[in-house]
Amino acid sequence: MSNEKNRRKTGSIGEEIACEFFSKLGYEIIERNYQYGHGEIDIIAMDREILVFIEVKYRKNLEYGPPETAITKGKQKLIRRTAEAYLYENDIKDQECRIDVAAILHLSGTKPEISHFINAF
Questions:
Q1: pLDDT digits over 52-99, tens only?
Q2: Contacts for 117 with CB less than 8 Å, ≥ 6 apart
């Protein structure tokens, strides 16, 4: 399997875990994998009255550090730009929004550990 396909499969597993986690918290999942240009929002959901853009980082080991460390300043900028495009494309105005991060560490033989960073950046 190519690296790209393997990365996508791993990302999909993380997104499934995150969707289940957020659904249990009462979030309403609106959309997954919204793309605009080079950017992508993994999950878009409603947390009561707040529109939440969720970035999911999933790792099966700590070889490259905790999952949340993969969200660089450049990645943050791209996520913000993509979220703004979503609001524009869907003609959403005067809506409270935030960006959350779900950092999932799923070591072999263990239950996934989920760190939820509310209003992460």
A1: 999 999 999 999 999 999 999 999 999 999 999 999 999 999 999 999
A2: 68, 100, 101, 102, 103
* CA separation for the pair 104, 70 (Å, rounded): 12
If you write DSSP's letter for every residue of 49-111 in order, what string do you get? TEEEEEEEEEESSSTT--GGGG--HHHHHHHHHHHHHHHHHTT--S--EEEEEEEEE--TTSP
Domain count, the chain: 1
CATH code for position 96: 3.40.1350.10
Nearest Cα to 44, choosing from 108, 6, 100, 91? 100
